[in-house]
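Below: protein 1.
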Amino acid sequence: MKAIFRYLLLCILLAAGTILRAQVDTTHRMKPDTTRHVVDTAMHHKDSTDRHKLAIFLPLYLDSAFDASSNYRYDKSFPKFINPGLEFYEGAQLALDSLQKENARLDVHVYDTRSGAQSIPQILQSPEFQGTELIIGQIASSGEMQQLASAAAQMNIPFINVNFPNDGGITNNPEFVILNSTLRTHCEGIYRFIQRNYPTKPVVLFRKKGTQEDRLKAYFDDITKTTNSVALKIKYVTLDDAFNATALTSNLDSSTQTVCIAGSLEENFARMLCQSLASVNQSYTTLAIGMPTWDNIDFSKPEFKGEEIIYSTPFYINPTDNLVRSIQQYFKIKFYSRPSDMVFRGYETIFRFSKQLLHVGGKGLNGSLGEKKYKVFTDFDIEPVFLNRQNMTLDYFENKKLYFIKKVDGNVTGVY
């Protein structure tokens, strides 16, 4: 019921208006306002030309959630597919509250990418969208990403892709920014992490059959060929769908720790692999290394007991951070719940890139994307990507910063 109330409140607020107008004169981080949670739509004047215009695209499903008579379609339930957009919006709203306290001179427009009344191409051609200097999008498909990236290129303004972890075939577009690092970047990060921390240990990559698994193997093979350091000697082992610990032990070294890479993004494969390694960790010392999808797995269950598990992620929320605690306290008081990672991502993305927009303006924003002074939670390392190393054409920018989370018995025992 709390989630339904939050969603209904969102619908009312967006129906009333979506523009924040204020003035900026400071650059410090602000504690979120625990007495307000919505954009102040009353401040809707056209009083100055030195404003900066931001467009936020989110899958809010405002139209599909209600019938023609404006009745909520889902009775007392709350469909999970609505959560990501709603949670990102909640975090964005807190960021806008903080920016408003700083008198930020922003015009912020929120667009529902699942609107039945207006498609993305129609939004991009609308008078309201013209003059936008920065696009931030929580993307649900590669088609949406391509449309927004194309518009950004034509307007010569940045498009920050918050969540979609691939380039969608987009090339030669220096306005396109990927925050959620691509699969190749994760493979490169894992490879370097092992080189730095376990250079003399045997390395086995366990995989299953599949197209995605073939792509992962190809990435690791290519990295091995091009590394500037001593290459890892990775042993590749393809497992059957119903593998068990016996299929693993013949590839493990009982005299030293074996680094075991999960060469698949599939969560069930990860669970089976880590469970099987845990079942033999009295005889074989192993370290399981995987992908960001492992963040969804509950490693505190007994079947994973004692196993050292590390996975890569481009986003890390430090629970001891004062701002993190402030937002958690706000949600506890306001909604009797805990904020999701997408809430923090909404706050961080909107606050950080709005501050950069205010500082340099839309046309010069790309030159400041890598600046660290507007860090909120995450140490983004936004670098240019050149897919064709021969002609060195800048294809897009990507966040190359990865955190490595180490867990034992479900507890975080290290962050690298």
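Below: protein 2.
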Amino acid sequence: MKGSAIHRVLLIVSICAAWALISWAPIYKYLTHGKATAAMLLGILLIALGMHWLDRLNQQQRQISVGWFLLLFLMLTAAFAVLYPLSLKHTLNIGSDREDALRIELNAVHHHQYPYDARTFLGNPPTPLPGAMLLATPFFALGHIAWQNFFWLALFFIFTIRFFRHRATALFFLAVFLLLAPANLSDFTSGGDYLTNFFYLAIAIALFIQSLDRPSHTWIPAALFLGVTLSSRIVYAVILIPLLALTLQRTSRARTIALFVVVPIAAAAVTLPIFAPHACTHLLQQLGQNAGKLRYIPTVLHPRWTLPLLAVVVAFTTFFVRMNLQRLFLTFSITSFVMLAPFVFTVALHSEKLRYNFSYLGICALSFALWALSRYERLSIGTPQHISLAS
């Protein structure tokens, strides 16, 4: 019992730390030092108290009403309605160009031009890969790319309800790391696709894992969808390693081979035509443009190669443990942190302009919180056993 209590405390501390990591920068940017410190301490206290309440509620084996999720969705919608127009006017700050990056890419494709020659209104080269472009195309056709955020958010709500054993845990996760995390809320309400990429990747992975013991008419579409989502941002490629470890543990080698042929073929089919006629050269150039973000890390460390290599080494450890969906998200949180945190922290130390750019770590926090909160609720006494995405 003592070990379980210590485990709970460690999980509470880790969730508070994950929230603080992605929240302190925007809070200190817009508030005075004293008010920001007070806001941070209050946020951590409320999260800790909320997790204590969550534990008590889950022990009672009660499921909360779906209406609470509808209320949260409406609150996020209201925040978008207020903040999105302001982000377009750059009233609060210089603004995010993530939606603009997708817009100029899709405009270029629509006019049969190479999409990565253009620049956003901030002068940055667009970074979304062709998978993100393809999934945003229906909303581009409707004239509002930002609307894709609501579509994938709604599906992500369903994913979290299925992922966790208790609806209360799902609601807590969504409220803390979407509504109450300023960096994540800012990306969502500015029409950015950074979190949306994570939403549909998480959904694709869950569908893929669920399809492992299903007929081919189920697992082939799941593998194709996963391949498309992997072609949204290069940071997600490393998730194939723990996913391979999990697949080998769940199904036959023959099906594993088939699945891991379909997934990269789907990713390549979406990605390479955009970079034609010199697909490999253009793809490497596109991926290499992120190297500038590593400029404050000593070149002797060769961070462009050592950071992905370290992430791959971490990912390969999954072949030595029993894998499930929760551990897959834990692995991704670690590997993505390995690749993203060094440039986030070094840029913050050296550049006043980019000191508050901690939103890049939002996907690390989301992925880690999925694992940590699923572990936390499993420590509750009398947790009912039922089939879920996390099983």
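The chain has one domain: 2-378.
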